[in-house]
From TrEMBL:
Signal peptide: none
Transmembrane segments annotated in the record for this chain: 28-54, 66-85, 191-212, 218-241, 327-347, 367-384, 405-425, 445-468, 480-501, 528-548
The keyword Transmembrane helix is assigned to this record: yes
Official protein name in the record: Major facilitator superfamily (MFS) profile domain-containing protein
Superkingdom classification of source: Eukaryota
Membrane topology: Multi-pass membrane protein
Subcellular location: Membrane
Taxon lineage: Eukaryota, Viridiplantae, Streptophyta, Embryophyta, Tracheophyta
GO cellular component, as recorded: membrane
Coiled coil: none
Length: 580
């Protein structure tokens, strides 16, 4: 008997055939999309501070802040793509719309790097003159640095959600088709992260070499070419995809709940659920049961005869709003936990540039040092997915071996250790200044790179899967965007933290702050790292409290039938049991 998949259609709008649509053959195209886009995006993101400081002559603090804002914009703009794909346009078509926007951004930066009139002249070391980018050229730079995130953000979130749509629900155990798809869905996000790492690995070797040896213009053009190839490959997979039909704006539905709850704040709650409204149209693809928390929102679904749009809400709408409120503490504490990470990534490039980067007589570009954590991450991901998860699943009973939030907590603990190690290494490097001894080898940074790799395997994948799995069927893209928003908000807060620390540590008589020096030798990066380590430790304990308080929508110890098996395109769909 064929596996029945509801709530999904093929590219022509017909019900999907599980034997022809979805599964591994479909996600292979998505994996290529992720690899190709990250081949250009990751090296640009990690090496952009070198371009801003070396070619555009920005100071260390301004270059680091701009780089952090670039990374933050990529993540925050994912909300736009998620909103469009959940509300109006299928995820596949959202990718096709936003991929050319990313290509345009790379071409703008390529043109600016190529034509001398569009960037500052080389520094005159003899005269001590080094003009930073300004005026129209600065505006062009900022335009390119924000057009790229506009496209890349949509590709990230829609790629993850489209991949998740290719697998239906079922029990993990067993040999039936539903079980096979459930196991595939459980592994998808691990391999999604693996493809990000694989793209980053190739890009940090190839694209960074082109940027540093052949010119930034060719480096940006190569990133644009990779995005173009990615768009062509994902287009070739169109006949194989399962498509989730948009059901209207989830943000509007949630806002309606708060408005209706306020309007009905004086209404008495009925004793029977019969007096509460449930959907009667065909737009809802998943019905959610009433849960006991956040009782003040339940009044939004009371049938008091008021049929105005912003007064009549369904139980499912109310439960969608409750899902967001439940996840809010995890979201906020995860933002705090991620604040130091973009700063550590950014400053590690500059830290590596101030050390001996030779390997067997060959100078290694500092940005290429991120190959080390990426290789660690790829090896750990494969070992975790193929060896650790099956064993942990048998030992703990959890569908993924451990819960999503436990996995995230391990990552935050690793990041605190990485920051402490980075501070110790920088302190030692500074003590070696002025001493008649060889410069420290850049490979002193390897331990902190390893811990960063551990964090990516745990926190990155854990949070992405957590927000996707906990979101309702009509909010899957938004759920993924919430995760990327964590990264973006954390990057922007990191940029603000740099400025705040500089102002707080600036002394009189022209003495600058910890990060106001012309280079790292004139700055106090070690002190800043120690501050970040303490910040991360506090954030870790706050996260532990919010994770301990959180109640999963589906108990992780028993793999439920995933949402796809519980959704329906009509109002005749009956019930779904969501464990709280």
């Amino acid at each position: 008997m064929a596996l029945q998949v509801q709530g999904l259609v093929d590219w022509r709008g017909r019900p999907v055939d599980p034997r022809r649509h979805g599964g591994l053959k479909a996600v292979m195209f998505i994996y290529v999309l992720i690899v190709m886009t990250n081949m250009g995006n990751i090296p640009t993101m990690l090496n952009i501070v070198s371009y801003l400081h070396g070619t555009m002559h920005m100071g260390i603090a301004d270059a680091s802040t701009t780089a952090a804002n670039f990374y933050g914009a990529i993540c925050v703009f994912s909300f736009l793509g998620a909103f469009i794909s959940d509300s109006y346009i299928k995820r596949f078509y959202t990718i096709l719309i936003f991929a050319p926007i990313e290509i345009l951004g790379y071409m703008l930066l390529a043109c600016q790097a190529h034509f001398p009139s569009l960037h500052p002249p080389p520094c005159d070391a003899a005269a001590g003159q080094c003009a930073a980018v300004s005026g129209r050229n600065l505006s062009l730079l900022r335009l390119g640095l924000y057009v790229i995130p506009l496209g890349e953000g949509a590709l990230r979130v829609c790629g993850a959600a489209l991949g998740g749509d290719q697998f239906d629900g079922g029990e993990v155990g067993g040999d039936d088709p539903a079980a096979a798809e459930a196991r595939g869905k459980a592994s998808f996000f691990n391999w999604f992260a693996f493809c990000i790492s694989l793209g980053g690995l190739v890009g940090l070797v190839l694209v960074v070499w082109v940027q540093n040896n052949e010119g930034w213009d060719l480096g940006f053009a190569l990133a644009a070419l990779m995005a173009l190839v990615a768009m062509a490959v994902v287009l070739a997979g169109l006949p194989f995809y399962r498509h989730r039909v948009p059901t209207g704006s989830p943000l509007t539905r949630i806002l309606q709940v708060f408005v209706a709850a306020f309007r009905k704040r004086n209404v008495t709650m009925p004793e029977s659920l019969v007096e509460m409204q449930e959907c009667s149209d065909g737009s809802t693809i998943e019905l959610l049961d009433k849960t006991p928390d956040f009782k003040f929102l339940d009044k939004a679904a009371v049938d008091d005869g008021d049929r105005r749009r912003w007064s009549a809400c369904t139980v499912t709408q109310v439960e969608e709003a409750k899902i967001i409120l439940r996840m809010l503490p995890v979201f906020l504490t995860s933002v705090l936990g991620y604040v130091p990470i973009p700063l550590l990534l950014t400053f590690t490039v500059q830290q590596g540039g101030a050390m001996d980067t030779r390997l067997a007589g060959t100078s290694v570009p500092p940005a290429s040092l991120f190959v080390v954590p990426i290789v660690f991450q790829m090896l750990i991901l494969v070992a975790y997915d193929r060896a650790a998860v099956p064993w942990l699943r048998r030992a703990t009973g959890y569908a993924a071996g451990v819960t999503h939030l436990q996995r995230v907590g391990l990552g935050f603990a690793s990041s605190a250790a990485a920051l402490a190690l980075a501070a110790a290494v920088e302190s030692r490097r500074r003590r070696c200044l002025g001493v008649a001894a060889p410069a420290m080898s850049v490979f002193w940074l390897t331990p902190q790179f390893f811990l960063l790799g551990v964090m990516d395997v745990t926190s990155f994948v854990g949070l992405l899967e957590f927000f996707y799995s906990e979101a309702s069927a009509g909010m899957k893209s938004i759920g993924g965007a919430v995760f990327f928003c964590i990264l973006g908000v954390a990057s922007w807060l990191g940029g603000a933290l740099i400025q705040a620390v500089n102002r707080a540590t600036a002394g009189g008589a022209g003495h600058g702050g910890w990060l106001d020096g012309a280079d790292l030798d004139a700055s106090h990066l070690d002190r800043f790292y120690w501050l970040l380590a303490v910040f991360e430790l506090v954030a870790f304990f706050l996260y532990l409290y919010s994770a301990w308080r959180y109640t999963y929508r589906h108990h992780p110890r028993v793999q439920p039938s995933m949402e796809d098996a519980k959704v329906s395109a009509t109002a005749t769909t009956t019930t779904k049991k969501a464990e709280v």
